[in-house]
Design brief:
Structural class: alpha+beta
Largest sheet: 4 strands, antiparallel
Radius of gyration: 19 Å
Number of strands: 4
Distance between the termini: 42 Å
Shape: globular
Length: about 220
């Protein structure tokens, strides 16, 4: 563990660190184009260890990480992506359909690591604290762990792409995990072909970032 000392005392962070953290957030992009070479030894374990520091409701730690190495299982996941992607394309028409058809929406073919992230419903950990009134906070906790994983990966030069165009039930079946596990994310992980701080969908004209003030209000 690295100890940081600053004018704010133990556990504090100086302005240089804050600036670097903000820079990390700007460069945390959804990667779709990966190099096929494997991750350096131990890097995935480091990233997962950082993600495990993520908070969770009642300290329940409901996330379950499943690395998908089997070519046959990967093929089943790719098949559900292709079916869902074709259905999504059929939902657009005109220019939107043309633009959608040109988008690369997964790195399933090239990413050396496939990682499915599940939420275990009603885990023993946490004894139910904090989720009686908002049980969905279990899934929110897993999303926070995914976010931590993503930042930890990017800090190490590793790219992550979230493939959401999937039928969750198909993935549960393909990976033979317990039926009650809830798929939260299917992640492609590897070294990116190139880096850009601007989201690809913004660069390609699909959706620009809007004014953040439009999403903030007081009551």
């Amino acid at each position: 563990m690295v100890e940081r000392t600053s004018s704010t005392g133990a556990g504090g962070f100086d302005r240089e660190f804050v600036a670097e953290f903000d820079e990390l957030l700007r460069w945390r992009r959804d990667v779709r184009r990966f190099r096929t070479d494997p991750l350096d030894p131990g890097v995935l374990d480091e990233i997962l260890a950082s993600a495990e520091l993520s908070p969770s409701v009642g300290n329940s730690q409901p996330w379950r990480w499943v690395e998908v190495r089997s070519p046959a299982r990967r093929a089943l996941v790719k098949a559900t992506f292709e079916r869902c992607n074709s259905a999504a394309l059929a939902g657009y028409d005109g220019d939107r359909a043309r633009d959608y058809a040109t988008l690369k929406l997964s790195g399933l073919d090239d990413a050396p690591v496939h990682l499915a992230v599940f939420c275990r419903p009603d885990p023993d950990q946490g004894a139910g604290l904090g989720r009686r009134t908002m049980p969905q906070t279990l899934e929110y906790s897993v999303v926070m762990a995914v976010s931590a994983f993503w930042l930890a990966a990017r800090a190490r030069g590793v790219g992550v792409g979230w493939v959401s165009i999937l039928e969750p039930g198909d993935v549960v079946a393909a990976l033979d995990v317990p039926d009650d596990w809830v798929l939260i994310a299917y992640l492609c992980v590897g070294y990116p072909e190139s880096l850009d701080e601007t989201p690809e969908l913004e660069r390609l004209g699909w959706q620009k970032r809007t004014d953040p003030h439009a999403r903030y209000e007081t009551r």
